[in-house]
Request: fold
Amino acid sequence: MTLRALAFDVFGTVVDWRGSVIRELTAFGEAHGVDRDWAQFADDWRAGYPPAMDRVRTGELPWMKIDALHRLILDELLERAGIDGIPDGDVAELNRAWHRLDPWPDTVEGLTQLKRSFTITTLSNGNVSLLTNMAKRAGLPWDCVISAELFRHYKPDREAYLGCAELLDVAPAELALVAAHPSDLRAARDAGLTTAYVARPLERGPGHEAPRVEDGEFDYLAEDFLDLARQLGATTP
Amino acid sequence: MTLRALAFDVFGTVVDWRGSVIRELTAFGEAHGVDRDWAQFADDWRAGYPPAMDRVRTGELPWMKIDALHRLILDELLERAGIDGIPDGDVAELNRAWHRLDPWPDTVEGLTQLKRSFTITTLSNGNVSLLTNMAKRAGLPWDCVISAELFRHYKPDREAYLGCAELLDVAPAELALVAAHPSDLRAARDAGLTTAYVARPLERGPGHEAPRVEDGEFDYLAEDFLDLARQLGATTP
Reply:
């Protein structure tokens, strides 16, 4: 079956959420005269997100956008860190840090090459406005913006992967999920999608290793988006 | 209230459906050795579309993508024109003529200018894959692709306009519908959106006039997208 479209996980795969959120938190701290371990704060913010999504996936919480989940976690972390008296507008602005994540160095050029041969879309748990604002700021050249929000099913729910193929009007195997996270790729594979693992060893900061991947577990293993473009024959205009 | 995003009607407003579909039908006729009044055929194809959508809107038909509605109408028109024996793949390819519509001369430059100051999206009854394929072929620089398909409500259902604002996370008045069709704009206005009428006098071919619009009925009246960019102060990088 011919590959026709590529759907990209975003946080960690396309953008460096950790470095970007630390940058935003540091600026927030300077503006408000508070000093904390912002790297740890960023890691805790991110760590709160899978369990919060699971509360939505299991029905314990009603459907909520990631923006709202990020805000729930942020309010808790600020309280726990003893940071109070911050005007609500400033907390809301800090929460939108996730709209202002920076791409990895190869991202824009890699997507531009891949776009010549494939339809390229997001397939993220981030909400549509978050993904749209991020793309506009970072110059990500998506053909369209697809989010779990459109299906009201967060990945790894099967509905997100199949819903993406349905919107693009391609068979599941004609669509590849591109992601740095084996769990996401395994769920995509189980739904019938093609899979492309891209290593992002710096996602959790220096000194961590990229997740282990079994040989042959996924259809493609790439160093970065430029390597993926080479493997898929998408480098020439 | 500040304007933050622009949602564009597509067929007729962004692209010249009539000229493009006549071009596709003429090529189809030549390939299959049939000659008909292709301008009339294109007009009949388009004329079949509002009643077909109404059958979905009233619940007489289940939800169907525009691709499927276009195909229903096309099959009827081919039969009525006595054109038979065409392989199904060729009819499907002809049906995708609506994915290959050409932009008006000012469209790409106008959108590029407007994109500097606003989030720009489609808000079309065309399905996501149709809009995505069209944008890729024609170079339409959307920030995201929003379709009635995402809400399972065709315009002028209120859910389509409000759903677009909700996905973009803006208040209805912060979002302007840009359209060449007063009925679409009136429904958007009734849902609380800002409205921008753009005249497309050639939509129905030469010799037709653009629809009449009352003075003050809409927030902006523009000659084309470049004029709209000037009126909205979006011309400079």
Observations:
- The domain at 17-99 of chain B is CATH 1.10.150.240 (DNA polymerase; domain 1).
- The mean pLDDT of chain B is 96.
- Chain B has two domains: 5-16+101-231, 17-99.
